[in-house]
Amino acid sequence: MSSTVKPLDLIKTARRLVGRKGRRRPPQSDLKRAISSAYYALFHTMCANCADLLIGTGSANRSRKAWLQAYRAVDHGYAKSQCKNSEVISKFPKEIEDFANQFIELQIERHKADYDPSSRYTLTEVHASIDAAEQAIKMFKRAPLKDRRAFAAWTALRVRDRS
Q1: Is residue 77 situated within a structural domain?
Q2: What single string gives the DSSP state of each residue in 10-79?
Q3: How confident is residue 20, by pLDDT bands cut at 50, 70 and 90?
Q4: Residues with Cβ within 8 Å of residue 109, at least 6 apart in sequence
Q5: Count of structural domains within the chain
Q6: What confidence tier does 2 reach under pLDDT thresholds 50, 70, 90?
Q7: How far is CA 12 from CA 18, 20, 31, 34, 150, in A?
Q8: Element (H or E) spanning 104, and its range?
Q9: Which SS3 state, helix, strand or coil, does residue 4 take?
Q10: Is residue 87 situated within a structural domain?
Q11: Is the four-CA dihedral 42, 43, 46, 51 of positive or negative sign?
Q12: Which of 134, 110, 136, 131 is nearest to 31 (CA)?
């Protein structure tokens, strides 16, 4: 996937914010930013997947504007809603189903981290979230291309009534 925001770089950023396991206890602000970075790693994976598979990966063979439009077409709330539709998501391969579930879970945590000043996280919880996000991204990229393309359409394109 080609994008200016590299999802696994966001995972590295999250890890830098919290430090290595067994080291100092970071402030809540770093723990919360790490949760947010882990979520955004998933979100940017979804955006790049959409743009690359609906528009194309080779910059010489694609419109930059069209690619950016597809990248930006992913809406946080709509994508979460589509990921929550278990009737549809359960038909995707396990790698995509797990990614969708992790996306939902981390979006909820990101909202808590960013908007609830009383929320608190432990270092163990944050490390677990970062690890889960990284694993979800790596497994998602192994899913069959046709299924990742269908997931891109499912999470970015509005479903219209057929009547």
Answers
A1: yes
A2: HHHHHHHHH-STTS----HHHHHHHHHHHHHHHHHHHHHHHHHHHT-S-GGGS-HHHHHHHHHT--HHHH
A3: low
A4: 35, 39, 129
A5: 1
A6: very low
A7: 10, 11, 14, 9, 29
A8: helix 94-115
A9: coil
A10: yes
A11: negative
A12: 110
Are 144 and 93 in contact by the 8 Å Cβ rule? The answer is yes
Determine contact, residues 37/13, Cβ cutoff 8 Å: yes
163 lies in a domain? Answer: no
Q: How would you classify residue 116: left for phi > 0, otherwise alpha for psi between -120 and 50, otherwise beta?
A: beta
CA–CA dist 34, 13 (Å, integer)? 7
Residue owning tokens 């891109």: 152
Q: Cβ atoms within 10 A of the Cβ of 85, count?
A: 12
Structural domain that includes position 45: 7-156
Q: Is the pTM of this model over 0.85?
A: yes
**What's the per-residue H, E or C state across 111-128?**
HHHHHCCCCCCCHHHHHH
pLDDT in tens, 126-153: 999 999 999 999 999 999 999 999 999 9
